[in-house]
Amino acid sequence: MTKMTRRTLGALAVGTLLTGGAQAQQVLKVGLIPSEDSRAMLAQSKDILEALEKNLGMKVQGFVASDYNGVIEALRAKHLDIAYLGPFSYVLATTVTPVEAFAIAETAKAGRTYYHSQIIALKSSGIKKLDDLKGRNFAFVDPASTSGYAFPLAGLLKAGIEPKRDFKTVIFTGAHDANAVAVANGKVDAATIADRILDAAIAKGHIKGDQIEVVWRSAPIPESPMVWRKDLSPELKARVKAAFLAINDLNWSDQGKLNGFKETNDQAYDVVRDTAKLANIDLKKQK
């Protein structure tokens, strides 16, 4: 088969998908969790969304909600077709609407498909271990955040620390980079943050790396997945997955430069479900 024939057949396949009936998909709507400022998330996702649009031959629209649950609600209402969710927000989403993880990013810097949650403080605070957090002001990211809430909460409880009882105040800032700024500005004494977002915050000058004490670090967490609604057509799912797997050497939201995307599945996030149990988080009550 010639290259021209393959290209022609590919174009016909896209045409069939887009014009094959009154209900044919015209636009792929992609949701993004606000792990950073919403404008930053859209700006840093621009290259990937444009590559996805090119690979699909279909218009792609990005959407960032005001919080993590906003993306889940948009999926449930079928206002979104696919979404970039955190591992924990994905697990939460599966309890309220039929969605499924299908792809995961491999970062170029670390060459891996996992990351870590951290609790950080300024070295000047004198906080060096978890026990030193007692009586301090503390920030989580979002109740639906993996590295910003579920994993560090499990770590704190395992160490015998109950945030409501042992911290002076507890706040939720809504974004990882906001946690870095809150620590840097002394708004809180310590905060949770994903390790890769801390690296980005340091690179952007939001906080000085040599002033940071990493008080706690989690075990590896599977990277944030791309998920789709299960009721999308099999043809569209196949094209979307192929479009993501064909992407490489581009920047992706808070993850930075990627080697590319790899396939994943729902079972890969059982470790997140297990951590939620350890943290005594009732997934059904999170919604």
Please, could you describe this protein's structure?
- With 287 residues, the protein is of the alpha/beta class.
- The protein is built from 10 helices and 14 strands.
- Helix 2 (38-56) links the parallel strand 1 and strand 2.
- Helix 2 (38-56) crosses helix 9 (234-245) and helix 3 packs parallel to helix 4 (87-94).
- The protein is globular and about 60 Å long.
What's the number of helices?
A: 10
If you average the pLDDT, what whole number results? 88
N-to-C span: 52 Å
Q: Tell me the total number of β-strands.
A: 14
Order of helices and strands: HEHEHEHEEEEHHEHEHEEEHEEH
Tell me the strand order in the biggest sheet.
2-1-3-12-4-14-13
Structural Rg: 20 Å
Low-confidence stretches: 1-23
Which overall shape is indicated by the principal axes computed on the Cα atoms?
Answer: globular
The percentage helix is 25-40%
Proportion in β-strands: 15-25%
The main β sheet shows up as: 7 strands, mixed
Structural class computed from helices and strand pairing: alpha/beta
Question: What is the topology?
Answer:
Layout: H1 3-19, E1 27-32, H2 38-56, E2 59-64, H3 68-76, E3 82-84, H4 87-94, E4 99-107, E5 114-115, E6 117-122, E7 137-140, H5 146-158, H6 163-166, E8 169-172, H7 176-184, E9 190-194, H8 195-203, E10 212-217, E11 221-222, E12 225-229, H9 234-245, E13 251-252, E14 256-263, H10 270-278
Parallel strand pairs: 1-2, 1-3, 7-8, 7-9
Antiparallel strand pairs: 3-12, 4-12, 4-14, 5-11, 6-9, 6-10, 13-14
Helix pairs in contact: 2-9, 3-4, 5-10, 7-8
